[in-house]
Specification:
Largest sheet: 6 strands, mixed
Radius of gyration: 37 Å
CATH topology of the largest domain: ABC transporter transmembrane region fold
Number of strands: 10
Strand content: 5-15%
Helix content: 55-70%
CATH class of the largest domain: Mainly Alpha
Distance between the termini: 69 Å
Number of helices: 23
Mean pLDDT: 79
Low-confidence stretches: none
Length: 615
């Protein structure tokens, strides 16, 4: 029920558009009935009554007042007008009927188009807003979320699940404001013609409701499984396309294809099952409706054929009743389809809410303290951090003096990257606090804190855009000269100007048109341009060849000059001149000091240096 209410609220987030859709749908329903009712005079032409053969029996109706009487008067007067015209000129009467029906059909379809016209804006605006919310939420979720969730599944929720909501927006308006009204209006017309025959038609509604509820309950479960499988499918595509080089190198194409086909087959089976359940409702309801309609035909035909018929049911009225009743089946089938769509959408809404309701963990303080210039340094005070159920850091106490370079070294999994990630609050500590001078970083705004920090990572994170826009990423108002100066500091200017379009060259997805060293130097240029007082370098040269490493290392030394730097090192030769080297093992600090001091201790750092051939 909660999911349906949320879909309803989404539908009416654009009230004017929703109201216009409702109004035009209502007018469509009215003129759909009118276009059918207007066929009755045509039937009277084919089956002339005794009063038409004897014009003296045609009497002009009188209006006796009252709202309901007004509609009866309009109907009776139209009948009087058509009978008079039939007597005077049957061909003119036929022409009048055709023109009236044509005009009614024109208005019916005009209002239907106007409903669709406004509905198209409404459905896409709701989808746009929902996708915006999900993307904004995805940007604000902590990194821990992405280590547990697959990107492909997140993409599936933004694409396929949101697509189901788009269909549901239309279904809500039709289910609540069009189909029931169409049923009521048609039933009123049927009751006016023959209450006896109309009572039989009510048999269809409870039967359909029972069928819809049984199918809908099963459909929601299948739809949820299908959408989850779509996430797995997207993840498989994203993962395998990203690892195509390794797949080819290890001749793993048959294995990957087999795995993908298995996942894709399971998705196809689930979606096919969902489609079959959803599409079962309309034909089943049509069959039930047809059965009831045939019962009405038999019952009504018997009334007309019965010599003692006192119901006033005539042949043309009976045929009109059948035509209108056949139209009663369409909104009933529409309800069945809308309910099926909403059951699928409920599963999608649940999956969307799992993202929108996910705990961001990293919270802004209500009254943030403005961070000033770093004068003393960064203090890690009694820091402990747990990832899931594993303690990653244990009672870390570390001081990074302002203007100095502190390097973190240790085996893989010792906690180096976690220490670095805690500083810009990609994660929050479990115990202890981090101080910017004397200000806890949780007391500052996240935006202000991250403005103080520049970062260069092991993997160069670049975007499918120009060199210029990658260097100026997140800094839209910088000048071309500043961008060029940053590139020169990063030893990147020379290779950039040799590109086809220089700084305007598009570097492709993840910068794949560039070499590893070129990508890293653009990342450094980006950090130079940001000009932040704090710098985090996460194994920035470990993936480079010797020549590229030399150019990048020169750029890093220029970048670190007069800045407070936290460096994570894999190649110990790159941090030999660091002011403080911190050695980590299993989430704890085991040694710290300068390179020479740690070598003299002949402890863990000495052993690491010996393994890399430097002492």
């Amino acid at each position: 029920m909660k999911s349906l209410l949320e879909i309803y609220r989404l539908t009416f987030s654009y009230k004017l558009k929703a109201i216009l859709v409702i109004i035009f749908n209502l007018l469509f329903v009215i003129f759909n009935l009118v276009s059918l009712v207007l066929f009755i005079p045509f039937l009277q032409l084919i089956f002339p009554k005794d009063e038409i053969l004897h014009p003296e029996k045609i009497i002009e109706p009188l209006y006796n007042g009252g709202f309901i009487k007004f509609f009866e008067y309009c109907s009776d007067y139209y009948q009087y007008f058509m009978k008079t015209m039939v007597v005077e000129s049957p061909k003119n009467a036929l022409l009048m009927v055709c023109i009236s029906v044509l005009f009614a059909f024109f208005l019916k379809n005009l209002f239907r188009y106007l409903a669709i016209y406004h509905q198209s804006h409404l459905r896409m605006a709701v989808v746009r807003d929902l996708r915006d919310k999900m993307f904004e939420k995805a940007m604000n979720l902590p990194l821990a979320f992405y280590s547990e969730e697959k990107k492909g599944d997140l993409m599936a929720r933004m694409n396929n699940d949101v697509g189901e909501i788009e269909i549901a927006v239309v279904s809500v308006l039709e289910l609540i404001f069009r189909e029931p009204i169409a049923i009521i209006i048609n039933l009123i017309a049927l009751l006016y013609w023959s209450p006896k025959l109309t009572i039989i038609s009510f048999l269809l509604l409870p039967i359909s409701a029972f069928v819809i509820s049984r199918i809908g309950k099963s459909l929601k479960k299948t739809a949820k499984e299908g959408q989850a499988q779509m996430g797995i499918l997207f993840s498989s595509m994203e993962e395998n396309l990203g690892g195509i080089r390794i797949i080819k190198a290890f001749n793993a194409i048959p294995y990957v294809l087999g795995s993908f086909k298995t996942i894709n087959l399971r998705h196809q089976q689930l979606i096919t099952k969902a489609f079959r359940k959803r599409d079962l409702s309309p034909p089943l309801n049509e069959f039930l409706g047809s059965s009831v309609m045939l019962g009405i035909v038999w019952f009504g035909g018997s009334m007309i054929l019965d010599a003692k018929n006192s119901s006033g049911m005539t042949g043309e009225k009976f045929l009109g009743f059948i035509i209108v009743f056949s139209q009663l089946l369409r909104p009933i089938q529409g309800i069945a389809t809308s309910v099926a769509n909403l059951n699928k959408a409920k599963a999608s809404q649940d999956r969307i809410n799992e993202i929108l309701d996910a705990d961001e963990h990293i919270y802004e303080t209500e009254n943030p303290i403005k961070l000033g210039e770093l004068t003393k340094g960064i203090t890690y005070k009694n820091i402990s951090f747990k990832y899931r159920d594993t303690m990653v850091l244990k009672n870390i106490n570390l001081f990074i003096p302002a203007g100095k370079t502190v390097a973190l070294v240790g085996e893989s999994g010792s906690g180096k990257s976690t220490i670095a990630d805690l500083l810009p609050r990609f994660y929050d500590t479990v115990e202890g606090e981090i101080l910017f001078d004397s200000t806890p970083i949780k007391s500052a705004s996240i935006v202000d804190l991250r403005d103080q920090i520049g970062m260069v990572t092991q993997e160069s994170i670049l975007f499918n855009d120009s060199v210029r826009n990658n260097i100026a990423f997140g800094m839209p108002h910088v000048s071309d000269q500043d961008i060029e100066n940053a590139a020169r500091v990063a030893n990147a200017h020379e290779f950039i100007i040799r590109l086809d379009e220089g700084y305007n060259t598009n570097i492709g997805e993840r910068g794949n048109k560039l070499s590893g060293g070129q990508k890293q130097r653009i990342s450094i240029a980006r950090a130079v341009l940001k000009n932040s007082p704090l710098l985090i370098l996460d194994e920035a040269t470990s993936a480079l060849d010797t020549e590229s490493e030399k150019l990048v290392q020169e750029a890093l030394e220029k970048l670190m000059k007069d800045r407070t730097s936290l460096v994570i090192a894999h190649r110990l030769s790159t941090i030999r001149n660091a002011d403080i080297i911190v050695v980590l093992q299993k989430g704890q600090i085991v040694e710290q000091g300068s390179h020479d001091e740690l070598i003299e201790k002949r402890g863990m750092y000495y052993n690491l240096c010996a393994m890399q051939g430097m002492e």
